Amino acid sequence: MSLPLSHPALAAADPDVAALVGAEELLQADTLRMIPSENYVSAAVLEATGTVLQNKYSEGYPGRRYYEGQQNIDPLERLAADRARAVFGVEHANVQPYSGSPANLAVYLAFAEPGDTVMGMALPMGGHLTHGWGVSATGKWFRGVQYGVRRDTGRIDFDQVRELALAERPKLLFCGGTALPRTIDFAAFAEIARECGAVLVADIAHIAGLVAGGAHPSPAPHADVVSTTTHKTLRGPRGAMLMSREEHAKAIDKAVFPGLQGGPHNHTTAAIAVALHEAAQPSFRDYAHAVVANSRALAEELLARGFDLVSGGTDNHLILMDLTPKDVPGKAAAKALDRAGIVVNYNTVPYDPRKPFDPSGIRIGTPSLTSRGLGTGHMAAVAEWIDRGVAAAGSGDEEALAKIRAEVTELMRAFPAPGLAVD
């Protein structure tokens, strides 16, 4: 498999960087990418990120800039925000945050003071660093209180969440995370937030595309603020958005600029607008539902092969596997699967006895393989490769991994990746 020389100016100016970009294009083309936070953007999104919009500074908001020459930038940002409101059914959208973590920091700046109590899912249970976890600035500057999942089911116990929230009275209550394989009950979180007087923040970074495509319930009717990245299942550029009810619009906008950042990245704003336009199409709805169908089919195949899945399965794009019964650490399995052409990440599982850098589990997902056109009929083969790869990791069988690698490459050649001009 080869790729045409698609970056002639880069190759002429800096062949070292061009070679690395080309190598990454080939790697993305012939491997089975299963990290659930990764995806393939369309050629249109990819082109938008490389436009001359990169050259323009635009501190402020449309109609209220600190720089002149915004004749094209203002309507571009309005277009992106309009599309976000339409796709997600929200009253206000800010498309300027640089990424998910800065977006969440803006929420803190808008609604809390240093030292205030905030509440979110514990990182080892599937939460995110910026939901008040201790090593994050959000856990150092605020008093973080964490909830988790039940040992017996791997699911959130809302009675426990309510009890903790009423006892601690957090200013912010976060729902959502990075390793949650089940549907988020936004209505239940909203009820608890009302009882304890908290601002409810729904972090849908992982599932934004599923929400946009109707494959996961929307937080819009329930949450005060919705935070999301624009990549992952949404298939946009590496950026973020904050959406809210109109009553919170001024606080959110002020927190983003000038509170945390200067001028927005206009080339990213353009790519976000393109991705949102794509997300509004009927084909995207089909994609979102196919992601979930593939994930559920893959979970069933893995269960049939004796794998232990946290919560017993999945409702979304993500599967969290505890490899303890296989007697293979997650890190060893992830590295072996990478050599086999199956890209996953090692991950802690709830109540993991192992350390985070060498945990018991791996986290896998179906967004990227679905973008390439793989369907439920391919999930048995994917599960079989994972099964063989984990077994090879345990036995040190590099020959078996090489055989899987060849089989993966052959399948990938039949399903070209969006945005990659494969020859």
UniProtKB/TrEMBL annotation:
Pathway: One-carbon metabolism; tetrahydrofolate interconversion; Amino-acid biosynthesis; glycine biosynthesis; glycine from L-serine: step 1/1. Pfam families: SHMT (PF00464). The record marks H231 as: Plays an important role in substrate specificity. Its cofactor is pyridoxal 5'-phosphate. One of its GO terms (cellular component) is cytosol. It is an enzyme of class 2 (transferase). (6S)-5,6,7,8-tetrahydrofolate binds at L123, G127, H128, L129, E246. Keywords: Amino-acid biosynthesis, Cytoplasm, One-carbon metabolism, Pyridoxal phosphate, Transferase. InterPro entries: PyrdxlP-dep_Trfase, PyrdxlP-dep_Trfase_major, PyrdxlP-dep_Trfase_small, Ser_HO-MeTrfase, Ser_HO-MeTrfase-like, Ser_HO-MeTrfase_PLP_BS, SHMT-like_dom. The modification N6-(pyridoxal phosphate)lysine is found at K232. One of its GO terms (molecular function) is protein homodimerization activity. It is found in: Cytoplasm. Belongs to the SHMT family. Catalyzes the reversible interconversion of serine and glycine with tetrahydrofolate (THF) serving as the one-carbon carrier. This reaction serves as the major source of one-carbon groups required for the biosynthesis of purines, thymidylate, methionine, and other important biomolecules. Also exhibits THF-independent aldolase activity toward beta-hydroxyamino acids, producing glycine and aldehydes, via a retro-aldol mechanism. Thus, is able to catalyze the cleavage of L-allo-threonine. This is Serine hydroxymethyltransferase. It comes from Streptomyces sulfonofaciens. The gene is glyA.
